Amino acid sequence: MAVLNLAQFNTSLMKAASKIDGEILDFIKTVAAEVFRRIVMRNPVDTGRSRGNWQIEFNSSAIGIIPDERKNEWNAVLLRGLSRLDKIKLQDITKNLNSIHITNNVNYISYLEDGRSKQAPNGFVALSLHEIEIFLRKI
Prior knowledge:
Layout: H1 6-42, E1 54-58, H2 74-86, H3 90-95, E2 100-104, H4 109-113, H5 125-138
Antiparallel strand pairs: 1-2
C-alpha cells in the first residue's frame, strides 16, 4: 500500500479538480451551444434578418445588429455563436464569467416570440429553454 505525503496528495487533488473543472466547462459550453442552436433553428423566417441576428456575449448582452448582407446565412450564425463559445477558457469560468447572454436586437424579435408569428404561435425561445430545463432536471 502506497503512502502519500501531503505534497503528493495536494498534487493528486489539484489534478482531479482540474479534470472536474474541465468537465464543467465542457458541460456549460455544450448546454449553451444547444440552447443557441435550438433558438436559431426555430426562429421564424421571412427575410432571415431576425435569424441572422442571434449573438452570444459573456456577462452582458450584445449591442447592435448584424448587417443585412449576412441575414440568410443561418449556418454562419450558428458557426459564429459556436466559435464565440469556444473562446471560453477554464480561467474565465473560475474568475470572471458570470453569465452567457444569447441576444437578438432586431426591433421586432418580441413579436416573433409572443405568439404573433404564424410560424411560431407558441414562441420559440421559451420553448427551447423549457426543453433544456427538462433535460437538465433529468441529469
